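Box 4.2: Ligand-aware structure prediction
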Amino acid sequence: MTDLLRALVAGTGRPVSVDGTTMDAADLLGAAAALAPALAGRERVAVHATPTLETIVAVVGALLAGRTVVPVPPDAGAGELRHVLTDSTPDCWVGPVPPAPHDLPHVAVDLAARSPYDAPEVAPGAIAFVLYTSGTTGLPKGVLLSYDALAAGLDGVADAWAWTGNDVLAHGLPLFHVHGLVLGVLGALRLGSGLVHVGKPTPERYAAAARAGATLFFGVPTVWSRLADAPEHADALRAARLLVSGSAALPAPVFERLRALTGHEVAERYGMSETLITVATRADGRREAGWVGVPLAGVETRLRDDEGAPVPHDGESVGQLEVRGPALFSGYLNRPEATAAVRTHDGWFRTGDVACISPDGRHRIVGRASVDLIKSGGYRIGAGEIESTLLGHPAVAECAVVGVPDDDLGQRIIAFVVPRPAVAPEAALAEELVAHVGAELSAHKRPRQVRFLEDLPRNEMGKVQKRRLV
Ligand code: MLC
Ligand code: AMP
């Protein structure tokens, strides 16, 4: 038995709507429970995670049955899709029609089906999700998140934001990452708040959700920045209770503009696929641009220098952020060495982020330790994965991918390419390389720009000097 979706199962949930189509919580529970017979004997299921009610019913049905869900980005290119499926080896697809060609069975969702829910036994430590996320090098890794970690993580944010069944949550985030799926769907279903997924997270749609009574709004900084540039829509959010930003750093000017336009100081919080949310600005806490708040209940944080020695929590000294708590992941699927590399012997997780902590426990994220992890539009993107894909194109001899500062996206992906001899570095080739990355990986991993060079800048050891390219 798992109580992950507590309010939904208890019958106290409120309606869920996606892009204008609404379902009562009782109907959602009935449709999700109706998947149980088709899921018998299947352990791990893939969901082609389009922003639809079918995706939500499929994920909920699989979780209610105690299965492991692999959400697959709907725009995943051929190479990324192949990797996710061979690495996670799901038994079937559930929910939206899977991308073609596919050779696994497909269990369709019937939104009109209704069955009573019969709770299965779920072993302690059972895995609810394999969420794929990028590292600095290589292919994306599958982050294993247990039912227990999800429950603990959601209770932590509910406490921090005074989030209850009286709220209506609105957002328009993708349903295959922690932000949109775990917080943005399971959070609402656990707490019984209403949920409005607006489809695309545009200023117009956030304003419409606010006018329709949504109280709590989630967004990545790009969403908030676009809203801050749309005063005619931002004003509607005055009626909200709390605006929350996360997944990347919220620029201070956006915080200030939103304060002026909506009367709200956006509450920033910090998390990762591997840790869920660890640090958050509390609804009743101090809000400051550039600071992401205090540890959630049960979470501990600390700073270490490059040698592993403690860095003081004095609000100024900068160190590598490590976290410990009940919502940490259970490891990377099939990658014991990668898992060991991010865990300390005493059970802390090395986030790879650089931060400072004030004496009273407030956190400021200064940046990533590695230039090879890019955050663009709130998506975590590994430079190495894009470089390997570009090197698979016959015109490319060498390349280096970097993220450069961008007002809208936080960082914008630029690929520096050394063409093979006799290949002309033309605009048409740049377009072809962008399309090649889009066909192999996800849409948001496409470089926004390709720049041709005769050589990449390297140090005496031959290592590409990416900071010089940035
Ligand atoms: C993009 N476009 C390109 C391109 N890149 N065209 C050509 N070449 C390229 N290289 C196109 C897009 O397809 C789109 O076209 C248009 O340009 C605008 O793209 P965009 O600027 O990327 O904007 P948009 O599509 O509106 O997306 C912005 C966004 C999106 C904010 C909605 O980035 C997003 O959903 N981000 C959320 C990421 C997220 O959920 N992260 C959470 C990770 S979990 P068209 O035709 O489609 O308009 C996590 C834990 C935690 O981090 O702490 O939360
Ligand atoms: P992901 O695994 O996609 O969840 O990305 C996690 C990463 O997003 C973290 O390691 C941080 O680098 C970044 N991140 C998340 N929230 C914030 C925030 N509020 N401020 C700065 N960076 C953030």
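In the box above, the bound molecule is malonyl-coenzyme A. The first helix runs from residue 6 to 10.
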